[in-house]
Amino acid sequence: MDITLQVNGVPRTVHVDPRLSLLDLLRERLGLIGAKKGCDHGQCGACTVLIDGRRANACLALAVAVEGREITTVEGLANGDELHPLQAAFIEHDAFQCGYCTPGQLCSAAGMLGEPGPSAVTEDLATDPGLTPEEIRERMSGNLCRCGAYVNIVSAIREVTS
């Protein structure tokens, strides 16, 4: 079947098998290899992209289910040659080692910046907790890093939010 979606601001019409995942569409059909296939079960976050500005595991989303929606991958975060503030902060804080999880970490962090409200670690549910290091760690907990660069990832995100 044919589907149309916006990928990084560009309208794309693609003929897909209804069983094709969004991740496979992005990587294999559109050549956007930033989102990585880690576990292929929605457990590691390496494939995180933004669907209409919200974080999602592309390995769990069917391509046909995102028809007509805006998909943003790590390739679409920058504004031309100008890096997204998170990308610049990740470089500044050395928030990656092998880099495999970095695209998912960046998309997840970008989506997290627009998510209001408390999380599981918020002490006072009546107030906005802000993005403290504890809040950032909790909200980014769906994105795993085998290298253990978490301290620098939190520092990079904290720089952008303060």
UniProtKB/TrEMBL annotation:
Key word Iron present: yes
Family matches, as InterPro entries: 2Fe-2S-bd (IPR002888), 2Fe-2S-bd_dom_sf (IPR036884), 2Fe-2S_ferredoxin-like_sf (IPR036010), 2Fe-2S_ferredoxin-type (IPR001041), 2Fe2S_fd_BS (IPR006058), Aldehyde_Oxdr_Iron-Sulfur (IPR052914), Beta-grasp_dom_sf (IPR012675)
Domain of life: Bacteria
Keyword entries, A-Z: Iron, Metal-binding, Oxidoreductase
A Pfam family of this chain: Fer2
CDD domains in the cross-refs: fer2
Every 2Fe-2S ferredoxin-type domain range: 1-77
Protein name (record): (2Fe-2S)-binding protein
